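Example 3.2
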Amino acid sequence: NFNRTTKKFKTDAEFTKDSTEDERWLDTMLHVLRLERPGGRRTLAWYHFSNHPVCFRDSLAGPDWPGLVANRVAETRKVAPVFLQGHAGDVNPGDGTIWIGEAEPTAAAVCDALGRALDDARPVKVDALRVAVEPCELPLDMALFQTWLDEYRKDPAACKSGPWVDAGFAQAWFESASKYDLNRTVLPITLAAMRLGEVGMVFHPAEMYSCYGLAIRRDSPLADTLVVGYADGTIGYGPDLNAYKAGEYAAVVVPKILDYPPLVPTATRTLAESALGLLAKVAG
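Structure, written as C-alpha cells:
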C-alpha cells in the first residue's frame, strides 16, 4: 500500500507521541485475530489492513483483491478470512509506481503477510467481552455549503469542472442540495467499541485518513487496537485539515456525491476523540 495523496509520507514505524495530522502517513501493518470456535464451527481469521479495496479499473463487478485473498487463504490455511477495513482514506493498493495497484500482486502480498501473521500469532486471554455503542455528531460546514449554493445559483455555466466534476453532476447536486434543511447542522453517526482481553476494536463509518487511525492506536488505553472503517454505514472520507485547505476530492467532491453538506475541517479529529472515549469505557 502507499499514500496516494503525496510522495512525501511517513509510515507507522515513524509515528510517535509527537506525530500530528500536519504530515501525511501510512499504516503498513496487517493484523490478524484468529478466532477458534468450538462445536465444529469453522475457524475465522479477522485481518485488518489499511488499503483501498478496489484495484480493478473496468465497469464489471468482481471479487478484487479481498476476494482473491479470501479464496486463497481458505484453501491454503483452512480458515475463513474476514477483511476489516483499516484507515485507507488516503491509501491505494500497490507500491506507488502506478496510481492504483493491480489485484493479483496486491492479493499475493496480503496473503504473504496474513500467513506470516498467523504463524506468529499468540494466545490472548479473554475473560469477558465488553462492548459499547454511542451516537456521535459530526459538525457540518454550513457556511461553505451556502457558498456552494450561492456560487451555482449565480453562474451555473461556470460550475463544470474541478470540485463540480462536470455540468451534469453540478446540476444534479444543486437540484437536491437546494432542498436541504439548513437547520440540520450535524451529521449523526454511530460508533462502537469492543474489548477482547488486551485487544480493542473500534468501529466507525468513515474512510479515515491514516493519521487519525494511527493516533487512535497510539492513544488507546488498550495494548493493541484495531480501527475499523466502513462500519454501521458509510459517510465517505474522513479527511485531515490539509485536505480541506487543498480542496481535495475527498473533502469537497465526495460530500456532493453522498448528498450532504461538507464536514468542518476538524470533523475527523472529533470522530477520533470520540472513538478514544469509547475505548476508555470498554477498557475500564
